[in-house]
Design brief:
- The chain is an alpha/beta fold.
- Helices cover 37% and strands 15% of the residues.
- The protein is built from five helices and seven strands; from the N terminus they run βαββαβαβαβαβ.
- It has a seven-stranded parallel beta sheet, sandwiched between helices.
- β4, α3 and β5 form a beta-alpha-beta unit.
- α2 runs parallel beside α3 and α3 runs parallel beside α4.
């Protein structure tokens, strides 16, 4: 398969581990990363996540020679504004620039590259977004300052549902909501395996759905 991963460059993290496993199983993997990790791999490039037009152009250049994109994985989970208690207090102030930065990262870029990817997709190809339980748990009492992250992940959930039901290529569009316990190698390996198998074996059952992936998680969150 031709697999394109956004955010798969950092060693020791899920995105990079996913890419390494996919390569080891014979898949052709293309990566757009936030930073240059010195791989010297022509299939792994760096792009500015603050510039939608530039990002889309680099995506096109990276995938231009491909006749088909089998899977697009948008694995970007950067900090989003507002995300700190002081940004929600009377002594703070609202930053439109920071709101727009978060919107570009979590919504505008995945929307743009999803539409571009669809041009090279057929029935059964897949688009996978990464979401968080914070985006749909309105009763939580932890991580309550992470307004931007939770909110924009919620928008990404709805983008996923819209694409799932209205894309014109019969592609499968879904989200995964994983928890990666990096401090526990056995548990992390289990979560990585479940996420990998889910992403590389998508079916119609997955379309428009959020798959929870952590210890004792229900299969679907919607």
């Amino acid at each position: 398969m031709n697999i394109v991963v956004i955010g798969g460059g950092k060693p020791g993290k899920f995105g990079n581990d996913f890419c390494n496993r996919a390569r080891s199983e014979g898949h052709d993997v293309y990566v757009i990363s936030h930073k240059d990790y010195g791989t010297n791999d022509p299939k792994q490039i760096v792009a500015d996540f603050n510039d939608v037009a530039e990002f889309l152009e680099k995506f096109k250049n990276l995938t231009n020679h491909l006749d088909k994109i089998d899977v697009l994985l948008y694995n970007s989970n950067g900090h989003s504004y507002p995300g700190r208690p002081e940004e929600l207090q009377s002594t703070g102030s609202s930053s439109v620039a920071q709101w727009e930065k978060a919107l570009r990262l979590h919504v505008a870029i995945p929307h743009a590259i999803a539409l571009e990817s669809l041009k090279k997709m057929t029935k059964g190809c897949g688009i996978v977004f990464m979401t968080s339980g914070m985006s749909y748990d309105l009763k939580r009492t932890n991580w309550t300052a992470n307004v931007g992250y939770a909110g924009f992940k919620g928008m990404q959930n709805h983008l996923m549902i819209g694409l799932a039901h209205h894309n014109d290529k019969e592609a499968i569009v879904t989200c995964i909501a994983p928890h990666f316990p990096y401090d526990n190698a056995e548990k992390y390996s289990n979560v990585l395996n479940i996420a990998y198998e889910y992403i590389t074996n998508l079916t119609e059952e997955n379309n428009g759905r959020i798959r929870g992936i952590w210890d004792n998680s229900p299969k679907y969150m919607n």
